[in-house]
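Re: beginner question about structure tokens

> Can someone show what the tokenized structure looks like for a real chain? I only ever see the sequence side.

Sure, here's an example I had lying around. Input first:
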Amino acid sequence: MDLELVGKLLSTLPEDDDHPYRTGPWRPQTNEWVADDLEVVEGQVPADLDGVYLRNTENPMHPSLKNYHPFDGDGMIHVVGFRDGKAFYRNRMIRTDGYLAEQEAGQSLWAGLAERPQIALREDGWGARRQMKDASSTDVVVHRGVALSTFYQCGDMYRIDPFSAQTLGKESWNGHFPFDWGVSAHPKVDDRTGEMMFFNYSKEAPYMKYGVVDDKNDLVHYVDIPLPGPRLPHDMAFTENYAILNDMPLFWDPEALKQNAHVARWHRDMPARFAVIPRRGQTKDIMWFEAESTYVLHFTNAYEEGDEVVLEGYFQTDPEPSDNGTGTKWERAFRFLAQDRMETRLHRWRFNLKTGLTKEERLTDTVSEFGMINGSYGGVKHRYSYSATNKPGWFLFNGLVKHDSWTGAEETFSFGDGVYGSETAMAPRVGSTSEDDGYLVTLISDMNADASYAVVFDAARLSDGPVCKLKLPERISSGTHSTWCAGEELRRWQTEDSAATAVGL
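And the corresponding structure tokens:
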């Protein structure tokens, strides 16, 4: 491995920190690395794996003002690139305005998710509730060859070089970015059209908006999605002709909100509602569908079938798990992050555009979340999804499950005791001929060996285990969202003789 330490970050976290989401598998990193020709410790890098895996995650640098929530940490991008049977690695903090301000101050300046906004040391801020730091630590997508990071409660989008992981500045959409509301966690890129769809939300009417950015990076569509009041949507989906948005019955308690307290409650007597709108439709074109009460954090895909729009995602049986008095104080405090406590299972909704009726069904009894598909099937009928399982009681991924939506069959793989992963991404094999003809890529942290690895699975045979395992420069923090971008979609990738030259080395 050709290794260089290129950055050392200022952290004021105490050495005796005991917060489980700032220590152990979630211990933040303070080093930025350039590593080429990664050491292969098992198997070999497939010669037909070509492109980059990018992962974003929370990486806190300073103690919170009062109560730290795992979503408060600053964004850090990890890149593992594959080409010519070799692999390289980069990691960089996302240089957001909030990160730079707190690094200069040497402390936290904004209130986090588990804190009242009034305790913030600055009056400005981002997020639907304001006075928060835009950590840009949620998702990462690639649009027009550039990676874009997002903030879960609406903020700026930061442009990231997908080779070096360096921050390139804020996205502006040629001067039309909605900086007043920002963009929410999960914009969707349609590989077929080059369009990116997004939504945002606010405490101000109409409470939600939806937009489309075209393949030239112009904001070409932006309309109101009126809601009954402030909501907390997190994800969306799309088909060839429609976008699907939602109004879930887990949102800030209205009475508490009058006191400027942001307390999320599941209003279990209210239905879940889904908005189906033509991809460039107007407010008047929205069709609303009601379904069983739940909260959905993530969807896997949607498609059209006859008169129906079909949507798949993770139904939460108990979005607001009660404190049952078991487990440590931390398990009890963060029970809302544990997939097994919320009972998240893959689910299917069918919205009939002719009758206005909804049909729904559970697809599996397996508890899982953070699902990905082969991106080239986005918006059209897919068969396979690849999800993460969790360590009971914790926000830690301990394995993967491949689900066949056509037959219900599943394959699983456990990382093993003390080993935790990130959201996987599906990388189609160069010249692939079928939906699961490719690889699954993820990053794992092995607490037993105090080391981290990039692991590659054959997507058609997940249960066989990794076909390749590559050592990273140090043990990295546990992580969340990721994406895959094929080499052919990246600028400079195919015009240079080597991966090193392509990334400017």
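Each token stands for a local structural state, so reading them left to right follows the chain. The CA atoms of residues 10 and 104 lie 9 Å apart.
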